[in-house]
Amino acid sequence: xxxxxxxxxxxxxxxxxxxxxxxxxxxxxxxxxxxxxxxxxxxxxxxxxxxxxxxxxxxxxxxxxxxxxxxxxxxxxxxxxxxxxxxxxxxxxxxxxxxxxxxxxxxxxxxxxxxxxxxxxxxxxxxxxxxxxxxxxxxxxxxxxxxxxxxxxxxxxxxxxxxxxxxxxxxxxxxxxxxxxxxxxxxxxxxxxxxxxxxxxxxxxxxxxxxxxxxxxxxxxxxxxxxxxxxxx
Length: 233
Ligand code: C5P
Description:
The chain is an alpha/beta fold. The chain contains eleven helices and eight strands.
């Protein structure tokens, strides 16, 4: 995989015209575009088609959490659209992940499980009734998801090295919370530089605001790719 192919740009924009502008501007700089809940709710499969129209790969970040039959049908629909990565919640349970994996079999779709949202801490877990502490819940749900057939996990840079050690080299680790040195952390708490995330075992790095809000987004993306290349040398 080329370093550039490891960079996932989050299309966190409200409509298709804006998404098209970002895709056109960044298509030569990143490997994957992430279509999340905001854009997919507004524009639907047209947003995925806009990504594919430039020859890039699409990550559909819908974080599915439903009964096994519905998860399977949604995974089949995403596979049909040619999506490369689709997120599901590990909390949907092993059967739901197993069924989704079965539905994706034979396509190029990779299922990535979300363990514990990084917006939740120990107190929130206790109120939900999910056994913590957070780090332990991440490891427990990560193992459950991979054993049930998830191709990988979405995890914070802080959890990445431990999950890599625990799960071995095979699961894909997709890591948001990336902040190049000196860039504002915003609402993110558990962050790391592109180099640190790559060294911790991240396969794919999700970057949004550090590129979207940069004065020169192309230069910002190239600098992230250069850091990844250097870290993996
Ligand atoms: O913080 P930044 O703007 O770089 O976020 C990039 C993307 O990563 C956003 O689309 C956000 O939804 C996603 N993200 C995530 N899980 C997290 C943190 C961010 O999926 N824990």
